[in-house]
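Researcher: I'm preparing a figure for a lab meeting and need a structural model of a single chain. I don't have an experimental structure, so a prediction will have to do for now. The sequence is pasted below. Please return the structure as tokens so I can convert it later.
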Amino acid sequence: MKLIGLTGGIGSGKSTIARRLANHGAVIIDADQVARDVVEPGQPALEAIFDALGHDLRQPDGSLNRSALGSIVFTDKSKLEVLNSIVHPAVKARTLSLFAQAPEGSVVVYDVPLLVEASVDYPFEEIIVASAPESVRIERLMEHRGMTEAEAASRIESQAPEEDRLKIANHVIDTSGDISHTYAQVDALWTQLKNVD
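Model: Understood. Here is the structure written out token by token.
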């Protein structure tokens, strides 16, 4: 197995790269999806969140009231730390389990938006960074996610600076052109990646 990290700021085209790699046969593991999975009803992490932060966060169907949780943890740093201490180990355990399930000889791509911010310590062989100028990313967020220019700029500002991501990159995919330009770069990179030792 070859383990590759894929990251990029919001609106950078990371999902487009992940889809193209999946089309080539890469096993894609989405960090955001894993984080949602570990707090599904019946999961130990969800019960731990209710115990630590309040059973009033439980919705009638047993699921987590995410907006109520957000209003608690984003106004109280100590509660955010409590949440992270529950969720991060659960995500790590689930992720390692998914890595272990990948077929032998496969290229596994871990799609993790906050790779720099979270100081993720998985044994990546290489890291791919999706990169586009801030103006392009703002335009995409306004067009595809219905954000105002100010909202888009604020979301970008809340993440690590682009230069921090570029410092850890083995490969940078420039997504500022059209989709065929992005695909051509991903296709060329795939040829390198599939040469698994």
